[in-house]
Design goal:
The protein starts with 5 loop residues before the first strand and ends with a helix. Helices cover 43% and strands 19% of the residues. Helix 2 runs parallel beside helix 3. It is globular. The longest helix is centred in the middle third of the chain and has 18 residues. The model has no long low-confidence stretch (mean pLDDT 95). The protein has 251 residues and is α/β, with parallel strands linked by helices. It binds zinc ion. Zinc ion binds next to loops.
Length: 251
């Protein structure tokens, strides 16, 4: 693995238009590493195909809460098999809670728990999506985790209080492209997060920037912004985040 590479710890290459995907592949493994996150069984299978073809892509197997109503128990078996088939499967996610979902809280919580149990069985970290009140999320997590060392809080968009709760249990806090919108509470959380817990991502193409779909290569903008905000060189920042990602995902 290239040591000077920028890692995007959460993107959806599996959902990119094909010509945009090709652009990434031609850049090769020297410059970037991508954790490709899936949201259902179709995207999970596609992600595993991509990560088996490209050394600089890794896969997380996820089931998004927006689709919780369509959950079937077979998906658990399918993900278990996929993770045994490929060494490039490095996490379970994204999974979590979303108030925009058609599914009830009870259904979402049930599905979330099934995947947490799978991650525990496979000894993989989880990538958590949260668009619900944080106390419901923490209640579920705390049933399973006494430490959050294997919990990645993706696209962190809350305030310092939530951040502190995560840090007390030493979880991973992943900041996404939305930091460029400079919302005050997110910027304050970003300033406060120690380098030891920091991950950086684009959540592309789902994260919109200036009204446009984002791309994993926008990760450069995330690093530049964070380097400036936290007064650290780009090189040191990329090394630290890469070291964190290697620990979090065991890559
Ligand atoms: Zn995502």
């Amino acid at each position: 693995m290239a040591s000077g590479a920028l890692i995007d710890t959460h993107c959806h290459i599996n959902s990119l238009d094909i010509h945009l995907r090709e652009e990434l592949f031609t850049l090769g493994e020297k410059k970037f590493i991508f954790i490709d996150v899936s949201t259902d069984s179709y995207s999970a299978r596609l992600s595993v195909t991509l990560s088996s073809q490209y050394s600089f892509i890794y896969s997380c197997l996820g089931f998004h809460p927006l689709g919780a109503d369509s959950f079937k128990e077979e998906v658990i078996n399918e993900f278990e098999e996929l993770s045994h088939q490929s060494k490039k499967v490095v996490g379970i996610g994204e999974i979590g809670l979303d108030y925009k979902s058609q599914a009830s809280f009870e259904t979402q919580a049930k599905v979330f728990k099934r995947f947490i149990e799978l991650a525990k069985r496979l000894d993989l970290p989880i990538v958590v999506h949260n668009r619900w009140n944080s106390s419901s999320l923490f209640d579920i997590l705390d049933e399973y985790f006494s430490s959050y060392r294997k919990v990645i809080f993706h696209c962190f968009s809350q305030d310092r209080k939530v951040l502190e709760k995560i840090l007390r249990k030493d979880g991973w806090v992943s900041f996404s492209l939305n930091i460029l919108r400079k919302k005050r509470e997110i910027i304050e959380a970003l300033k406060a997060v120690p380098f030891e817990n920091l991950l950086l991502e684009t959540d592309s193409p789902y994260m919109f920037i200036n009204g446009k779909k984002s791309h994993p290569l926008n990760i450069k903008d995330v690093y530049s912004f964070v380097a400036q905000l936290k007064e650290i060189s780009l090189e040191e920042l990329s090394q630290r985040v890469l070291a964190n990602a290697k620990e979090a995902f065991r890559i």
